[in-house]
């Protein structure tokens, strides 16, 4: 008999509501949220990873560093799901700097995506001519 544990990760909405409820004690709440995000973003579940990244992006707007998550941003950018990919691109725009270590990988990922888009449009043009 296998036991499955249900994880109750917080959404971005829960994070925002929690910040409002912890007026005067935001620092401790944010540190706990950052710890949760660090574990959630290491998950293999891409939905969980994208949600954690979205929360990190929100906290980054308050001045908290998320440069440690650069590789995880790249992983979300490479997702096949458009909504997750969009969160990854937002994370890249918000957090990548000229000295970010994964810039070369990001450039190669963007080349691959643009090549695929041009290939699809070429095939579409060919099919329309037939």
TrEMBL record:
Name this polypeptide is given: AP-3 complex subunit delta
Cleavable signal peptide: none
GO cellular component: AP-3 adaptor complex; endosome membrane
Annotated compartments: Endomembrane system
Pfam families given in the database record: Adaptin_N
Alphabetical list of Gene3D superfamilies matching this protein: Leucine-rich Repeat Variant (1.25.10.10)
GO BP: Golgi to vacuole transport; protein targeting to vacuole
InterPro entries cross-referenced by the UniProt entry: AP3_complex_dsu (IPR017105), ARM-like (IPR011989), ARM-type_fold (IPR016024), Clathrin/coatomer_adapt-like_N (IPR002553)
Predominant location category: membrane
Family, as annotated: Belongs to the adaptor complexes large subunit family.
UniProt KW Flavoprotein keyword: no
Superkingdom assignment: Eukaryota
Record-annotated Clathrin/coatomer adaptor adaptin-like N-terminal domain positions: 28-113
Keywords (A to Z) from UniProt: Membrane, Protein transport, Repeat, Transport
């Amino acid at each position: 008999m296998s036991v499955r544990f249900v994880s109750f990760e917080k959404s971005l909405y829960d994070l925002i509501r929690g910040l409002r409820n912890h007026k005067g004690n935001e620092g401790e709440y944010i540190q706990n949220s950052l710890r949760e995000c660090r574990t959630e973003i290491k998950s293999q579940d891409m939905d969980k990873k994208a949600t954690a990244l979205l929360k990190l992006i929100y906290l980054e707007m308050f001045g908290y560093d998320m440069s440690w998550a650069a590789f995880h941003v790249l992983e979300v950018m490479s997702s096949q799901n458009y909504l997750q990919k969009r969160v990854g691109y937002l994370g890249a725009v918000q957090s990548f700097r000229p000295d970010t270590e994964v810039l070369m990988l990001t450039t190669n990922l963007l080349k691959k995506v643009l090549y695929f888009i041009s290939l699809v449009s070429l095939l579409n043009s060919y099919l329309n001519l037939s």
